[in-house]
UniProtKB/TrEMBL annotation:
HAMAP family reported in the protein's UniProt record: tRNA_thiouridyl_MnmA (MF_00144)
EC number annotated for this UniProt entry: 2.8.1.13
Intracellular or extracellular location(s): Cytoplasm
UniProt-recorded name of the protein: tRNA-specific 2-thiouridylase MnmA
GO molecular function: ATP binding; tRNA binding; tRNA-uridine 2-sulfurtransferase activity
């Protein structure tokens, strides 16, 4: 089994749609494709609305980024198109992002964007434009196997690996996706950009959610009404504080709760939007022995899914070992070798076999035994 940078190209060069964001990674992607003999078409997906708010879509996928992407396309010597995906972005990304917070979950919009827009809608658009492949600047390795299959592996730069965001890629799309920078480390990508004189060579990386100005809590507050509720102790149901809505909290959080006795170290261990209750407890109360997911997607045959896998439950965290207790086309259940802290519903549980990406799903909340409580204000106590 080998992991070539790019599949071998025919003498005439295959046509490739290169997704360009105006950043250095996609700029170098376009240049490497051109050097490898592909017939490259640069394209950027427009997400920002006509009434774009200040400080949104400014770091990536912005009007300025579109200008820079077009300039890079000129430098590389390829055509460039701006594709309108505003409606799809609102439907698949922004709307579900708000709804997940309303349900007491913590969403990851980048997963949805890659799954439902970039590697679904964009692959379809590429075929319409006569392109065999879609290429992106993700730090992911495409591995072509001896039997003609295609796998996604972790990128060679451990600080930049982005496979976590790609678990939802439709399996039938894998043969048509290229990752030219997947075998490179970030410093080398910038060197290539400098050597080519690309104007994005020193452009800073984007870190924030593109459509959220400032803090996520402030954005959520603009879309979901505040509603006063209780903060309760998970062990006995006593009220130890109050809040303005479960949508402003996430599992594991221990700051910014405004408890009556602020010196007590408490963690959020459960959110219940139906009763508008935030439950807090000790660190141990926030440990999960396993998880269940829904909306699963597999990049291997289900029958070939290993019984013991590596699972990553947050981006930028190390994978941990887990046993697959059950798996079907809808979801799976895992048991961790060691309990994990604050596994947040709405985030992704992503499965690996060593460096190979196997698939993933969205983490469900786990059922908890909650103490019986009264909603009467008389239960308010200072503890």
């Amino acid at each position: 089994m080998t992991a070539p940078l790019l599949p071998t190209t025919p003498s005439g060069g295959e046509r490739v749609l290169c997704a360009m964001s105006g950043g250095v990674d996609s700029s170098v992607t376009a240049a490497l494709l051109k050097d490898a003999g592909y017939s490259v078409v640069g394209a950027m997906m427009r997400f920002w609305p006509d009434d774009k708010r200040t400080d949104t879509f400014d770091s990536c996928c912005s009007p300025d980024a579109a200008y820079e992407a077009r300039r890079v396309a000129e430098q590389v010597g390829i055509p460039f198109y701006l594709l309108d995906y505003r409606e799809q972005f609102q439907r698949h990304i922004v709307g579900p992002f708000i709804e997940e917070y309303a349900q007491g979950r913590t969403p990851n919009p980048c997963v949805n964007c890659n799954t439902k827009v970039k590697f679904d809608e964009l692959v379809k658009k590429a075929k319409m434009l006569g392109c065999r492949y879609v290429a992106t600047g993700h730090y992911v390795k495409r591995v072509d196997t001896a039997d003609g299959g295609v796998e996604f592996w972790r990128g060679d730069d451990p600080q930049k690996d982005q496979t976590y965001f790609l678990w939802g890629t439709p399996r039938d799309a894998l043969p048509y996706i290229l990752f030219p920078v997947g075998e490179l480390e970030k410093p080398r990508v910038r060197e290539i950009a400098e050597e080519r004189g690309l104007l994005t060579a020193r452009k800073p990386e984007s870190q924030n959610i593109c459509f959220v100005p400032g803090k996520v809590q402030d954005f959520v507050a603009e879309h979901l009404p505040q509603a006063t509720g209780f903060i309760r102790e998970i062990s006995n149901g006593e009220v130890v504080g109050d809040h303005l809505g479960t949508q402003f909290y996430t599992l594991g959080q221990k700051r910014g709760m405004g408890l009556y006795q602020s010196h007590r170290v408490r963690h959020i261990v459960h959110l219940d939007p139906k009763t508008n209750t935030v439950w807090v407890g000790d660190y141990d109360d926030c440990l999960w022995g396993g998880l269940k997911v829904s909306g699963a997607n597999y990049l291997c045959d289900l029958a070939d899914l290993p019984r013991v896998v590596d699972v990553q439950v947050r981006y930028r965290t190390k994978p941990v070992r887990a046993t697959v207790l059950h798996a079907d086309e809808h979801g799976f259940e895992l048991q961790f070798d060691d309990p994990q802290f604050a596994v947040a519903p709405g985030q992704s549980a992503v499965l690996y076999d060593g460096p190979r990406l196997l698939g993933g799903g969205l983490i469900n909340d786990h059922k908890r035994d909650l103490p019986e409580v009264s909603d009467s204000p008389a239960t308010l106590v200072n503890v």
